[in-house]
Amino acid sequence: MPWGESVWRRAKAENKPVFLSIGYSTCHWCHVMERESFESEDVAAVLNRDFIPVKVDREERPDVDRVYMTAVQAMTGQGGWPLSVWVTPEGKPFYGGTYFPPNSAHGRPGFLDVLRQISSAWRERSGE
Fold first, then answer.
1. Domain count of the fold of the chain
2. 89-99 residue pLDDT tens
3. pTM
C-alpha cells in the first residue's frame, strides 16, 4: 500500500497495526530481507491478514524515514536499513528493528516469529 492518509484510515477501520518497511534501492540487506521474507507465502499471509503493510523508499520520503528512524533508535539504540517498524493506527511506533532473518538464529528473532508475537500482543493488548 502506498504511504498516505489511506494507510491510517484503513488501519483505524480494521483495527490493525501498520507494518512499515523503509529501505532504498541500493541497500543490500533490504534486498536480502525482501527475498528471504517478503517473497515468502507464509510471511505474506501473516502480513496481509494481521497488519497494514507499507513499503517506503527513504530517498523518496526522507521525512518519513527521519521520523521512524529516530523512533527506532530511541527504542533500541540501533538504526539502519531495512528499517522495520510497527505502528499504531494513530501513527505511533511501538516496536521496531532493522534486518530480521527469516528464521530465528544466532540470537536474532526470525521475522515470522516477530510478526506472530506482535500480532498476538496486538489482539490481546491493543486497548491498553
1. 1
2. 999 999 999 99
3. 0.93
d(CA 4, CA 38): 21
Residue 128: inside a domain: no
State how far the Cα of 81 lies from the Cα of 41, in Å rounded to an integer: 23
Range of the domain at 101: 5-123
Query: Strand 83-87's sheet: what is its strand order?
Result: 52-57, 18-23, 83-87, 93-97
Residue 22 within a domain = yes
Q: Report which of 52, 122, 108 is spatially closest to residue 76, judged by C-alpha positions.
A: 108
Per-residue pLDDT tens over the stretch 44-82:
999 999 999 999 999 999 999 999 999 999 999 999 999
According to DSSP, residue 108 is labeled B
Q: What is the largest CA-CA distance in the chain?
A: 39
Q: Is residue 112 predicted with pLDDT exceeding 80?
A: yes
Note whether residue 40 is domain-resident.
yes
